[in-house]
Specification:
Radius of gyration: 27 Å
Strand content: 5-15%
Mean pLDDT: 87
Largest sheet: 6 strands, antiparallel
Number of domains: 3
Helix content: 40-55%
CATH topology of the largest domain: 2-enoyl-CoA Hydratase, Chain A, domain 1
Low-confidence stretches: 1-23, 238-243, 693-699
Number of helices: 21
Structural class: alpha+beta
Shape: globular
Distance between the termini: 55 Å
């Protein structure tokens, strides 16, 4: 019923969607691309704030300055397709004095590099356009090198020409694999390359300054960043509208805009068709709007295209992460909508047909985010919504239904309120510390369970995956440290740092110009056992086999991520101990025969193989065969699992797909890991029955 209603809303919203007319952005002449006095002041203030307040203490020496330049070149030219080796050597000569220059706010090198970059873009696009006029031989046995930071800069224009010949050929082949005609491909690629020139010419001094300063801040660590005045304004707008849109967090990855995560309750996640790691290659407005190719666009420009009024339709062309560059583009239509607190709220279900433990009922509480209605709380509403309050009620309901254990499902939970992570932990422990927070000056504060007593004292498990982050890691780590329950799944994201926003104008009294803001890493989370959640995340007591195939993910995949460290443990008493050896063996035996996990493992292998690729074939036949092989392997495993569950497989690409069957299929796949977590907990319940004598009631 929900699917049919969503489809009805979809078509109604399409007719009501507003049409936005935007003024054409201004083309900036090269003569204006020089640093301004306000940017010089901002650079000086940023440097002082970082030295004073950033959690990581780093000397601004010549080696650090060289890394800043390397990061700046990477930000502008990640595929090393524009700058020549002689350009880079000249820049490095200027970087020898960059450390002293940054202290004084000297930005000449940054603007010099960008002016050269813009001229190189113009040159390359002229060459790319000339290649589009000629034929391509897709029977020739040659490859295209994927982006790699270890590849040397091209020594001359001839070498760069060869790189671009293969690049344009790969772009052409990728669209050909998506069943575009040659005429459509030439038009689309010409627009893409001309768009690159157009957007590069729209970069003004603030854009150049922001790009360079972010190269500086992210040489420290990846979560510190500078926002120019215009970006700050957009940030304020996005925060006010943060609960409207498609509900996706985006990041730039070389020339692609990538789905970093989807927001619980948001249209993107609810559609079931937008996945973490998908790359957005095209955006269109409404049902009939023309697709705009957004490969190579700035992240902010893509965000602006996707953002829109509630009820309007945006169409995304997505290249799945598993498809590498081999085509397989799918189109998804999404109705922009408001993300309500109810959509992110915790919910529960009971699993009582687990197979391994007849008669044992296990409750599951899914927590998509750590939420707290601060607005209602601030207005004096004593009944404001929060994760802890909702989970307490769900626990009471599950206990009344006779469950003998509870699984807390934190998969995909990117965090949220620290206060909620702390108070939620308090539902499962009597009293004590939950997490330690160390600031930039070495001061350590301990967040403790705010309320004595337990809401639930029975068998407990916490299910996590690679996308469980921040507050999720605090909760899972505390449950593990107390010995209060099992942690099951995959190593978590590893986000163990705390950021704050700083208005730079507060450090320059009387300054008339808006200097922008700094998102600053100023503290780190530590578990009560002393180790940080940073980088390593939380290691499960029982790992699922997909964990063995994890590629670089989360904090571990980010350049300059802060290292794992430890401090003195907090003063706490373990609530118990969990014996996992037998439970892990029983689970491994089940999982090895489970078609659902077979499917998940095959999917993980495909992802790993894609990540490991350094070259792709430019032979059309080979590429089609490779794409078909990947798709068939995944579909065969998925269909085998669905049939084993008595579910008729449906193809999402079919135009007449049955929405109800598709929902059932997605739900079954989402249940694979949570059902095994429930079986593990049921095993623990049975084991506890045999090892613990029954309590005797006395008068």
């Amino acid at each position: 019923m929900r699917s049919r209603l969503s489809r009805l809303v979809f078509f109604v919203a399409a007719f009501l969607a507003a049409t936005l007319v935007l003024a054409a952005p201004r083309q900036v002449p090269l003569s204006e691309l020089f640093p301004s006095p306000a940017q010089t002041k901002s650079a000086v203030v940023i440097n002082k704030v970082l030295e004073r307040f950033h959690y990581k203490k780093v000397d601004l020496d010549s080696a650090f300055a060289q890394n800043v330049l390397d990061n700046y070149l990477k930000a502008l030219d990640p595929s090393r397709a524009f700058f020549l080796a002689r350009d880079v050597e000249r820049f490095k000569g200027g970087a020898k004095r960059l450390d002293e220059g940054l202290r004084r706010g000297e930005l000449d090198l940054a603007f010099d590099v960008f002016r050269v970059y813009r001229m190189r873009v113009d040159e390359r696009v002229v060459y790319a356009e000339s290649l589009l006029k000629g034929p391509f031989d897709f029977d020739r046995d040659e490859t295209f090198r994927l982006d790699s930071p270890d590849v040397a800069w091209a020594k001359d224009s001839a070498e760069l020409d060869e790189i671009w010949r293969r690049r344009v050929k790969n772009d052409f082949l990728t669209l050909r694999l998506a069943d575009k005609t040659d005429e459509e491909i030439r038009d689309r690629l010409s627009e893409r390359y001309q768009g690159l020139v157009r957007r590069t010419h729209q970069f003004d001094g603030n854009d150049v300054f922001q790009t360079f300063m972010n190269a500086y801040t992210q040489t420290l660590e990846p979560h510190t960043s500078y926002m120019s005045p215009s970006t700050s304004e957009n940030f304020d707008i996005s925060m006010k509208l943060s609960l409207e849109g498609i509900g996706a967090v985006l990041r730039a990855d070389n020339e692609y805009t990538v789905i970093q995560s989807t927001v619980p309750g948001g249209p993107a996640r609810e559609s079931g068709q937008v996945q973490t790691g998908d790359r957005i290659v095209g955006v269109a407005q409404g049902l009939e709007g023309a697709i705009e190719d957004v490969v190579g666009w700035r992240l902010q420009d893509v965000v602006d295209k996707i953002r829109g009024p509630k009820g309007s339709v945006v169409r995304l062309q997505l290249l799945p992460k598993s498809a590498a560059t081999n085509g397989g583009v799918r189109e998804v239509a999404i109705v922009r909508n408001e993300i309500k607190l109810e959509d992110q709220a915790a919910k529960a279900l009971v699993l009582d047909d687990l197979g391994n433990a007849p008669g044992v009922r296990i409750g599951v509480i899914e927590i998509p985010a750590f939420y707290r209605d601060f607005q209602a709380e601030g207005s004096g509403d004593r009944n404001f919504r929060s994760t802890t309050r909702d989970v307490r009620q769900l626990i009471d309901d599950l206990v009344l239904k006779g469950v003998e254990g509870i699984v807390i499902d934190l998969r995909g939970n990117g965090g949220g309120s620290l206060a909620e992570a702390t108070s939620l932990t308090g539902l499962f422990i009597d009293t004590g510390p939950v997490v330690q927070v160390k600031d930039a000056f070495g001061k350590i504060e301990v967040e403790t369970d705010p309320e004595p007593g337990l809401a639930y004292r029975g068998p407990l498990a916490v299910l996590v995956d690679r996308d469980s982050a921040s507050a999720s890691e605090i909760f899972a780590g505390a449950i593990q440290d107390y010995g209060r329950g099992l942690v099951i799944g995959e190593p978590t994201f590893g986000k163990g740092t705390v950021q704050t926003l700083i208005d730079l104008n507060r450090y320059v009294p009387g300054e008339q110009n808006n200097l922008g803001r700094l998102r600053l890493t100023m503290a780190e989370f530590f578990r009560i056992s002393g180790g940080s959640t940073q980088l390593r995340g939380v290691e499960p007591d029982i790992r699922f086999p997909t964990a063995e195939l994890m590629v670089e993910h989360g904090e571990r995949s980010l350049d300059n991520a802060l290292p794992w460290t430890r401090i003195r443990p907090a003063d706490y008493k373990k609530a118990g101990s969990v014996s996992v050896d037998l439970l892990a063996l029983q689970s491994a035996e089940r999982v090895s025969k489970d078609p659902g996990f077979t499917m998940l493992v095959e999917r993980s292998k495909l992802m790993r193989d894609v990540e490991a690729q350094t070259h792709v074939s430019l032979q059309e036949k080979a590429r089609r065969e490779d794409d078909k092989r990947r798709g068939s392997v995944f579909k065969e495993q998925q269909n085998a699992y669905l049939r084993a569950r008595g579910i008729a497989p449906v193809d999402e690409e079919d135009e007449q797909v049955d929405e109800d069957l598709l929902d059932a299929q997605r739900e079954a796949i989402a249940r694979i890991q949570v059902e095994e977590a429930a079986r593990i907990l049921a095993d623990a319940v049975l084991l506890d029955r045999t090892e613990r004598p029954r309590a005797v009631m006395r008068d």
